Amino acid sequence: MTLLSFTPSSRLPVPTFSTVRRQPFVSTTHHPQSCGLLGSKPIPLFGLRTHCPAPYDVSIRSKFLSFGLSASVEDLIRDAGATAAVIGGAYVLVFIFDNLTERKLLNQGLSRKLVHILSGVLFMLCWPIFSTSTEARYFAALVPLVNCLRLLVNGLSLASDDRLNKSVTREGNPEELLRGPLYYVLVLIFCALAFWRDSPIGIILLAIMCGGDGVADIFGRRFGAVKIPYNPQKSWAGSIAMFVFGFLFSTGMLYYYSALGYFQLDWTSTMQKVALVSLVATAVESLPTTKVVDDNISVPLASMAVALLSFSN
Ligand SMILES: C/C(=C\COP(=O)(O)O)CCC[C@H](C)CCC[C@H](C)CCCC(C)C
Ligand SMILES: Nc1ccn([C@@H]2O[C@H](COP(=O)(O)OP(=O)(O)O)[C@@H](O)[C@H]2O)c(=O)n1
């Protein structure tokens, strides 16, 4: 099982998630596709069909398969529409925070952090609007990819997007776009492709990077008088906020996906594992390593390592 092929299939003996309520982690669907880890069909989201195709769909799908299309036209249209909508949402988010900064309703630092928190969390909240086809994750990954190109073009000064600079950089310096923000969207691309809706690991990883690390900055700047002995740049308040909000964002996102039918989790065990991942991520984020490796890389890497160990059987 590789991360990218982490798609349950009724034919293969698939591992049983220890966090899943005591039943074999086997999909009962006709198609090896990410539609609920246990064949439990996700409930429709906003009226959209997010469940696995019913048997009658097999005949429709087999017609497309005979033409070599692995996804139905309906799925392709839905995914293209979802991609366009979420890309539009990203532009609106940057526009809103640029406006708030312009009007001095938000300082640039807080604006940047709120964009840091909201971008990834809202992106994950949008994943269920994509179809259940195996191609859906690639459509979803287009959203951070488009923003990656936007960051590169502006960071290399091939174009100038003032709104982006003001809402995403500390001092409005375009080169800044090529560090934290670029690593951030690269992690979003990786999680969408490698984990998608199939595994709690990517969701936890993003919740900690976006929610935990984002809130750490806000609390740390505001309440961070007592510094961490081994890193005067960081504070106990910031790190405690990182742990607490990393945990809360992670469990909140897992509950969201569980409520939609993607996961059936043993919550006692899951909460323990999420707390461990959040603790390790907090410890890594507190280290004086930002000059060597950005915490948008170190924190997700550490979170992924611990989450893979914790959630594998
Ligand atoms: C400010 C950001 C990262 C900086 O991190 P750090 O250096 O402060 O630790 C976030 C950059 C966000 C990016 C420009 C836009 C990403 C949009 C996202 C892929 C899709 C959001 C869609 C949703 C519906 C708003
Ligand atoms: N654990 C933490 C994290 C951040 N912070 C505060 O937030 C500021 C920015 O943190 P950071 O360097 O991690 O910011 P980003 O690299 O995430 O943008 C730090 O200079 C601290 O003032 C903190 O006090 N404690």
TrEMBL record:
Cellular-component GO terms for this entry = chloroplast membrane
Question: What GO biological process terms does the UniProt entry carry, in alphabetical order?
Answer: vitamin E biosynthetic process
Its localization reads: Plastid, Chloroplast membrane
The alphabetized UniProt keywords are: Chloroplast, Kinase, Membrane, Plastid, Transferase, Transit peptide, Transmembrane, Transmembrane helix
Q: Quote any Pfam family the record assigns.
A: CTP_transf_1
For this protein, the Enzyme Commission number is 2.7.1.182
Q: Which GO terms of the molecular function aspect are on file?
A: phytol kinase activity
The reaction(s) annotated as catalysed by this protein in its Swiss-Prot or TrEMBL entry are:
phytol + CTP = phytyl phosphate + CDP + H(+)
Instruction: State where it is primarily located.
Output: plastid
Q: In which pathway does it act?
A: Cofactor biosynthesis; tocopherol biosynthesis
Q: Where are the transmembrane segments?
A: 80-101, 113-130, 136-156, 177-195, 201-219, 240-258
Q: Does the keyword rRNA-binding apply?
A: no
The family assignment reads: Belongs to the polyprenol kinase family.
What is the protein name stated in its UniProt record?
A: phytol kinase
- Give the organism's phylogenetic lineage: Eukaryota, Viridiplantae, Streptophyta, Embryophyta, Tracheophyta
